[in-house]
Amino acid sequence: MIKTITWKNNAVVLIDQNTLPQVECYVTCHRYREVIAAIKNLTVRGAPAIGVAAAMAAALGAAELARFPQARFRRNFYLVCDEISKARPTARNLFWALERMKKCLEEALRSGKPDPVGELVAEAKCICAEDIESNRRMGKYGSILLADGDKVLTHCNAGALATAGYGTALGVIRAAKAAGKKLHVYVDETRPVLQGARLTAWELKKERIAATLITDSMAGFLMQQRKIDKIIVGADRIAANGDTANKIGTYSLAVLADVHGIPFYVAAPLSTIDVSLKDGSTIPIEERPDTEITFWRKVQTAPAGMRVYNPAFDVTPARYISAIITEKGIIRKPYRQSISNLLKG
Q: Is 115 known to be catalytic?
């Protein structure tokens, strides 16, 4: 299994996703600000993986505060979590993980646990293990939506690299393959950072799953040619009504899928759902640096001084989503009620 993120020898070890697919190497972070930098520069990316990284960064931060008296430790830990929360704004999992780490600390202090740092490290490890297990359950639920012989389109990377392991959207494909179904995956390159071409294609080759790489602009043509049977993507934040933020270009695919009568599925853990937002209009959308568009690995690809707009995500209205696959089952319309019922269960 691909080890996206692990806690080892009191440090956080990350596969460096910026060097893939050419080189598989790992970055070791001993301090919480090193993890923040890794989140910002996309060494680690994907909403679930960012959540795990945030939890582990908080644990590292707690270790740095261990010498402080309890009141100062608690106050500074909250400041550390606030700093981590600013790493990237869209992925709900980051904020969910930090909320869980704060709750862990409060429970440790309230119950008089002698080693709150140890409790926080254990909680971060637990969040990591739970993510892998939830992905596997998600895969089993979602695999029933894929038929033997299906040609499936993906966008961005929602595989093991976007999680602690196994994957969300790609986890569904993995589970379908494990069930004996023969699939062919069409991989959108996913401009401008090429997460599809660099990461999803790399994962599929390692798993020996049949796949074809296409440019983003080819997807509609393939749908028109009836070469796509299903589309499955991940998510960075899902509002209470099912509106979903995901990598830029997802909305276009959903609209095209609707026109061509192709099922469009979203796979995401419950930690991605943000019921505080009634719909997708208030989901914060991160804007990335201009250089992601004007340069490719230090090679200039656009005129100097060109104005750039680079939102990392877009929002797909719930009406275009055929189903949402979670670790507790498949959610169907009406999403507001279905999501509410699932979270209460």
A: no
Q: Which of these is catalytic: 131, 150, 236, 243?
A: 236
Give residues with Cβ within 8 angstroms of 32, minimum separation 6.
57, 58, 60, 61, 64, 80, 83, 84
How far lies 296's CA from each of 85, 110, 194, 195, 267, in Å?
A: 28, 51, 10, 13, 30
The pLDDT of residue 287 is 97
| Residues whose CB falls within 8 Å of the CB of residue 344, separated by 6 or more in sequence, listed in order | none
Give the CATH number of domain 5-135; options: 1.20.120.420, 3.30.930.10, 1.10.10.10, 3.30.420.130.
Answer: 1.20.120.420
Which tops the pLDDT comparison, 344 or 243? 243
| DSSP 8-state assignment for residue 112 | T
Question: Considering the entire predicted model, what is its pTM?
Answer: 0.97
Residue with tokens 């093991």: 160
Residue (of 262, 264, 246) closest to 315 by Cα position = 246
pLDDT value, residue 345: 75
